[in-house]
Write a structure and sequence with these properties.
- By secondary structure, the chain is an alpha+beta fold.
- 40% of the residues lie in helices and 22% in strands.
- The strands form two sheets. The protein has a 17-stranded mixed beta sheet that branches. Strands 8-9 form a two-stranded antiparallel sheet.
- Helix 9 runs antiparallel to helix 12.
Length: 749
């Protein structure tokens, strides 16, 4: 009688032409499996620890090195990165101008209207960009250090984008007063938070004056700590990346930007044809755009590491012949970080390796089948079981996190949904995935052998990776390469003489361990909501691809094992996952960080009727929704004047001296809009328009062609909720994020 795994009860695996022989007892198999598991764990820990940050240098560090202490002192001279158009924004401009002038730069203010539109929505801003220049000795191009000045309401912006400002100031100080070979420009733009407006205005009006090629280093933050990484690159930057100390870059993060909602000024610079890199920190994202994005929470080690990267890159680019890079401009290697640095692999090779992995596994299946260890049916069951295990593991992680948030909403950021303390939740996600995987493993082992499960799981993962390698080598490169090495290694281990088998499996397993350590660490920096299921999916897919490496040659380990008691570990790991989730909730609730609340007052400009829109996490905010309130606030004003050719002029202003004005249209839209003569969403029919950076008393003039017969509502927006009726100050332990007072009034035509 033949079982599903393909081993006849009256036969044992037979030696083949490649000296294929059983490797002995179960104990020997257990020892090799334990050794492989130990190697995997050690490599994972090594990968995770490799992503640490640099020890911060003090104020007494040598003048030519970057010092986090000096950078912090420079940042302390302005109190915060404030919203565009506010008085505090003006004060930041003045201080930054003074510091850059002291450092020997020629500094000027570039005032222009930036405007960007998409999908019937457009934003425009009255921007004041700071441009500081230092001409090069013999320029072959321009090195441009960039970040933005503005933040969002109620967020000090110590990281977003204060860390970029601090890094740039300390970098140019460490460079010294002497000119580099190439032109050096510091570009500090406004209006980034409202749609990359300052960058748009500068590129449109001033980029032609720069010595080409232009290489930009853009500085961003979506958190307050963690390892600074290159998130995107443009042009031949693979030739420059090795100059960074302890560099990190994954091509998949660049490809990922095309499908996530976040954006930075780098998009504008890359669209302009500039080369360069987008750099960011993402750990501690619970503080992003909140009052906790302050100097007390910003990690000095992160600041030091960020500065070391920027200083090294600026020195390299500043003295390099940038024109020589043009010969590499058409090269687009898939890049990934390995222990010795960043390596680049041609996209075609990634695709070939991705396709080679399932072919190697099919060859392994044929080899194993020839020795009566597996059959096709057993392997298909293994693939089906792996699909259930991977999908179930991801679902369990998502369900566990979703339940925790629903039960304790006060423990997460109102901006990004991340918990204040995420470590236990990340462990819970991995435990939940592990519990499902163990459950499926034990159930499958009751009917098929270990080899069938392992090869089937690896085939499933490798086919998915092969499809990714064909569709987008950059997006799949970091996982395709370890999977291909594991598949080829498993095949070689089955063909090589027995003395080489274990060594081959160990070597082939190392890339998977490194991948798990670095990628789980990187995903963990997003917190948990951004990666819920992502950590579990990464771990399960990587382990599935490497599973055949854990299968030796002995017949004993290939038999089904009908032992229901082996379900107990899966149950215990599941209980652990639940316990970690409960512990994570308690740990986050014990955090000293205040509960975050969103509050917006909506005021009818006609009669002052006020309604409060709140997140309602605490009793205090929930009480605002019950307030029967009236506000004594003047309404914004708009006037429509007919022009020739079917166009109209719409003049709007805010008696409250608001820095932001919104226009919302129903029943039609505006086409071919200009704002003070600047085209705004040209060729599009716009139904939502936002204007930022408005100065006190300023009248904004729009011209457009009206589509349909729209009703136009004008809203001015300020950021102090105490202006509105029904307001009560929040108790201690509550922090406001994105507070708005919106006064609305119809515009009569």
């Amino acid at each position: 009688m033949t079982s599903a795994h393909g081993t006849d009860a009256s036969h044992r695996p037979r030696p083949g032409p490649a000296q294929y022989a059983p490797d002995g007892s179960r104990s020997r198999t257990a020892v090799s499996s334990a050794l492989l598991l130990l190697v995997l764990v050690i490599t994972m820990v090594w990968g995770a620890l490799s992503r640490g940050v640099t020890e911060p240098a003090g104020a007494d560090a040598p003048a030519e090195v970057f010092s986090a202490a000096r950078a912090t002192a420079a940042a302390a001279r302005w109190s915060q990165s404030p919203p565009i158009g506010t008085p505090s924004n003006d004060r930041a401009h003045e201080d930054l101008t003074g510091q850059l002038t002291e450092l020997g730069f020629e500094v000027r203010t570039h005032e222009a209207i930036g405007a960007r539109a998409a999908a019937r929505y457009a934003a425009a801003g009255y921007n004041r960009n700071l441009v500081a220049t230092r001409p090069g000795r013999d320029p072959t191009g321009t090195v441009l250090l960039a970040t933005h000045i503005d933040s969002v309401p109620a967020a000090p912006g110590a990281a977003d984008a204060g860390i970029g400002l601090a890094v740039i100031l300390e970098t140019v100080r460490a460079l010294g007063p002497d000119a580099l070979r190439n032109d050096l420009v510091v570009l500090l733009v406004d209006g980034e938070e409202n749609g990359l407006l300052g960058a748009d205005a500068y590129v449109r009006e001033e980029s032609a004056a720069l010595t080409e090629p232009v290489v930009v280093l853009n500085h961003e933050a979506r958190g307050i700590s963690g390892r600074p990484t290159v998130t995107r690159a443009a042009g031949p930057m693979h030739e420059v990346l090795p100059s960074m100390p302890r560099p990190e870059f994954e091509s998949f993060s660049d490809a990922l930007f095309a499908v996530i909602p976040n954006d930075t000024d780098f998009t504008v610079y890359r669209d302009a044809g500039w080369w360069g890199m987008d750099m960011a920190i993402i750990d501690g994202s619970w503080a992003y755009h909140t009052p906790q994005d302050d100097a007390d929470h910003l990690d000095p080690g992160t600041l030091q590491h960020y500065g070391d990267l920027t200083l090294a890159l600026t020195r390299d680019l500043g003295d390099r012949d940038l024109t020589e890079l043009s010969g590499h401009a058409d090269e687009h290697p898939v890049q990934t970080t390995v222990p010795w640095g960043i390596v680049g692999v041609p996209p075609l090779l990634v695709t070939v390796l991705g396709v080679a992995a399932p072919l190697a596994l099919l060859t392994l299946l044929v080899t194993r089948r020839a020795h009566r260890e597996v059959n096709v049916l057993g392997t298909m069951l293994g693939s089906a079981g792996a699909a259930v295990g991977i999908a179930g593991g991801i679902a369990a992680a998502v369900l566990l996190w979703g339940t925790a948030v629903k039960a304790e909403p006060a423990m997460v950021s109102r901006v990004v949904g991340e918990p204040f303390r995420s470590e236990l939740f990340i462990a819970a996600e991995l435990a939940a995935a592990g519990a499902v995987a163990l459950l499926v493993w034990v159930l499958l082992r009751m009917i098929i052998g270990r080899a069938a499960i392992a090869i089937g799981a690896a085939l499933l993962a490798s086919v998915l990776f092969a499809a990714l390698a064909v569709w987008s080598p950059a997006l799949g490169g970091s996982m395709v390469l370890p999977a291909a090495i594991a598949a080829i290694g498993a095949l070689l281990a089955a063909l090589l003489p027995s003395p080489l088998t274990l060594a081959t499996r160990i070597v082939a397993l190392l890339p998977t361990g490194w991948l798990l350590g670095t990628q789980i660490s990187s995903l963990a920096e997003f917190g948990i909501a951004s990666a819920a299921g992502g950590i579990a999916g990464t771990a399960l897919l990587a382990l599935a691809a490497a599973a055949p490496l854990f299968v030796g040659r002995g017949a004993a380990q290939l038999q089904p094992r009908r032992r229901p008691r082996r379900l107990l570990p899966a149950v215990l790991v599941g209980v652990l996952a639940v316990g970690l989730t409960v512990g994570g909730s308690l740990h986050s609730q014990a955090s000293p960080e205040p509960v975050q609340e969103r509050v917006t007052a909506h005021v009818d400009g006609a009669d002052g009727t006020t309604t409060w829109e709140v997140s309602g996490v605490t009793e205090w905010s929930a009480g605002l929704t019950d307030a029967d309130a009236t506000s004594n606030l003047p309404a914004p004003r708009g006037e429509v004047t007919a022009l020739e050719g079917g166009r109209v002029r719409i003049a709007v202003h805010s008696p409250r001296q608001a820095t932001r004005l919104d226009l919302d249209l129903t029943g039609g839209g505006l086409q071919d809009v200009t704002i003070d003569g600047t085209p705004w969403g040209e060729g599009q029919a716009l139904t939502q328009l936002r204007i930022v950076g408005v100065r006190p008393g300023q009248h904004v003039v729009l011209e457009a062609r009206i589509e349909g017969d729209p009703q136009i509502v004008l809203t001015d927006v300020t950021f102090d909720p105490a202006e509105a009726g029904g307001w009560t100050a929040p108790p201690e332990g509550v922090a406001l994020v994105h507070p708005f007072v919106r006064v609305s009034s119809p515009v009569e035509r």
